[in-house]
Structure formats: C-alpha cells, structure tokens
Amino acid sequence: MKISNALVEELIKQLVGSKAIPLVLLIKEKDNIGEFKLAEKLKLTVNQVRTILYDLSSHSLVSFIRKKDKKKGWYNYFWSFKNRRAVELILGIKKEMLEALKKRLNVESTDAFFKCPSGCVRMTLENAMEVKFKCLECGSLLQEQKTYINIENTNKEISKIEHDLAELEKLGPVEEETVKKKVRKIKKEPKKRVRVIKAKKGRKVKKKKLKNAKKVKKRVEKKKVNPGKKKKFSLKKLKKIFKR
C-alpha cells in the first residue's frame, strides 16, 4: 500500500519539517536503503542523515534492520518508510481538521464579525459591543466584516480534506507491515549414530556405536568363547593330527 507523495509531503512538513521531505521520498520508493547511500544521494553527512531519521523515528514513521560488516566489524543500518503509520497519522490529522472547520463554518454562518481596518483584531458582535466598537490596540473603529468570503474559503478547505480522506479509503484496509530481519541460525548438534540390534522377543534396542571397531570385535569374541569349557575338534582336524 502506497500513498501519494503530496499527502506524505504535507504530513512530513507538519511533523518534522520540509528538510526531511527529500529523504522520505527516497526511502518511500525503495525499502532497506543504507545510511551511507542516503548521505551520498542527498549530499549530506551521515550524521545529518541520522538526525533526520531519528526525528522520523520519534513519530514511528521509519523502521530499520541492521547487518554486521564482517570485514570492519561494525553494524550498518538500512531504513524503510512505514506507509501504514503514515496513513494512520494522516487520517487522524485530517479528521481533526475537518471537525474544527465544520465548527468554524457553523460559527461564521450564524454570528456577525467586526474587524479592525489595520488588521489588529477580529471579534464577534458581543465582544465588539463590550469595547464600544473600538480597537483596543490602535483605537480605530471596528468595521463589520462580510462573512460569506470566509464561508467560501472554509467550504473549499472542507471539500479538499474530504477528497483526501476518500483517497485514503480507496487504498483499502490498513495491513500490518512486517520488517524482514535476518534470524541467526542456531547450529544443531550432529546426531549420534546408533546400532539397532534385534532382540529375541522382537524388540529393537538402540545401542551407541563405538568409534573403534576392534573393541566391538573383542567384546563379541569374549561373549562367544567360554574359557571354562574345552575346545571341540571336528573329525577332519583329528585325522590331520593322527597323520602327523
């Protein structure tokens, strides 16, 4: 979801100042831009870029990820613009302005106003009667002001804000943004190899495989040979012995 540059510029100018607009337009078009690259494109120092980014971060308008430089050993920061947060702020500000303008329109259309010809003050009929239609600053007589001009201007401002709100509604529901971060992979310990021996009852018993195969052979031979019993010779071996 992306909002128009005009709305973004208006928001940034109101919250941070016009100095941050070029930087915001850069990171708005492309995510994860490094600080040094921003400084190079904007022809600013890295510290100046960081100051602007910290101002934007105070309003939660930017997010960052960091990556460690394996050669130099320090962390590099890569910044992205948060469209979701920008839409939320614009909606809140526009709705407050719309409510204030509607109240002002109601006052302008019902009350009469008097203004100093020098532009010192502007007040309602009740307040003008209290000061006897004289300006408290310069002493000039107050003149009645035609309110229809203010009503027209207020209506134009209201229609503009309503148009901006309609544009934002066209963007659809505001979805949560997720920042891609590198997750450190945990090295798993290698699994130990095991021997599976079938027991008499059909059960499978797991036994750790020894590294040295000779030790296994010796153990097997010791189990097979009973030292208490005499060796049994076959007929062929007995014949060979007697022939000698």
Summary?
The protein is of the alpha+beta class.
Description of the molecule:
By secondary structure, the protein is α+β, with helices and mostly antiparallel strands. The chain is 49% helix and 14% strand. It is built from 9 helices and 8 strands. A 3-stranded antiparallel beta sheet has the order 1-3-2. A hairpin with a 6-residue loop joins strand 2 (62-68) and strand 3. Helix 3 packs across helix 4 (46-58) and helix 5 (83-110) packs antiparallel against helix 7.
Mean pLDDT: 76
**Total E-strand runs:** 8
Query: Low-confidence segments, ≥5 residues, pLDDT <50?
Result: 175-211, 225-230
Backbone CA Rg: 43 Å
Encode the helix/strand succession as letters.
HHEHHEEHEEHEHEEHH
Estimate the helix proportion, in percent. Answer: 40-55%
Major beta-sheet overview: 3 strands, antiparallel
Number of helices: 9
Into which percentage range does the β-strand content fall?
5-15%
Give the arrangement of secondary structure elements.
Layout: H1 5-15, H2 21-29, E1 33-34, H3 35-42, H4 46-58, E2 62-68, E3 75-81, H5 83-110, E4 113-115, E5 122-124, H6 125-130, E6 143-145, H7 148-170, E7 194-198, E8 204-208, H8 213-224, H9 235-243
Antiparallel strand pairs: 1-3, 2-3, 4-5, 4-6, 7-8
